[in-house]
Amino acid sequence: EVQLQASGGGLVQSGGSLRLSCVASGFTFSNYAMSWIRQAPGKGLECISVMSGGGSTTYADSVKGRFTISRDYAKNTLYLQMNSLKPEDTAVYYCAKYPRSWARCDEVDRDYWGQGTLVTVSS
Asked: How confident is residue 64, by pLDDT bands cut at 50, 70 and 90?
């Protein structure tokens, strides 16, 4: 059974940092692209980063230069390091898996999602 368990959210002041984690199980982690998606209050889903099974990365313009996606293949864990946080980064953050090794943010056929972790950035 595929499971994705996201954690690491919390309350942080503007300019601060957080690191989100997503522990994966039930599949061969290195074979699949993984993504971070967020949903701000009252808004739609926004894909902010994708990392391929091989390690290539892409970022949305809204987070480029501030957020870093990474994965620890030994721990089957996906990370999102978030620096220079802004109030507009406040959202529920989800990790999600693609059914293939490489993907782009505009491809929405993710097959499994984690439960989400709330990040709140105060001004």
From this structure: very high
